[in-house]
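Re: [help] complex structure
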Amino acid sequence: EPEVTQTPSHQVTQMGQEVILRCVPISNHLYFYWYRQILGQKVEFLVSFYNNEISEKSEIFDDQFSVERPDGSNFTLKIRSTKLEDSAMYFCASNIESSLLYEQYFGPGTRLTVT
Amino acid sequence: SQELEQSPQSLIVQEGKNLTINCTSSKTLYGLYWYKQKYGEGLIFLMMLQKGGEEKSHEKITAKLDEKKQQSSLHITASQPSHAGIYLCGAPMDSNYQLIWGAGTKLIIKP
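Output below.
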């Protein structure tokens, strides 16, 4: 069964460093999403991406964050200058249509630890 | 802003017993997803409900959407250890398809 993959599974970085989280969505999917979950808290929407541009973003997704689909298969989330409060599990998701008719398939997540 | 409240926050159930988890929205629900998460891991899709009154079942899990009550319930029959985990409901915010999430219900199954 096709699945969304994410790398790395765990990333430790120092405050102020840039990190890039990588995701490979399911190949025929067109809509891509990033969510984050701070330990013990709710899953929070960050951004959705379609047709090579951001379609929606939340208040969390400020200028420190950016997304890119550099090569038609990878979908990346970059945090320019990490802060302690960026420590969280980051989930990538994709679906074939942005519609309730289609489930969002989630990757296993990348645990980001900022020290 | 729209919020999803899940109840209970946690549940300990004897293996073999039935249980119900609820998800209530502060605004109109345009549909609802149920996912399961093992602690610190990814989200596994369970079910998606699109319209009021809809009920879906998968193995021993049944979910229903009550549009008037702005609520969905997830019912597990004859619970097993494999059902243990955190159950999350997610719903599109307004109609923009970005999902907002409940805080989760942690389910523990006692053997």
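The radius of gyration of chain B is 13 Å.
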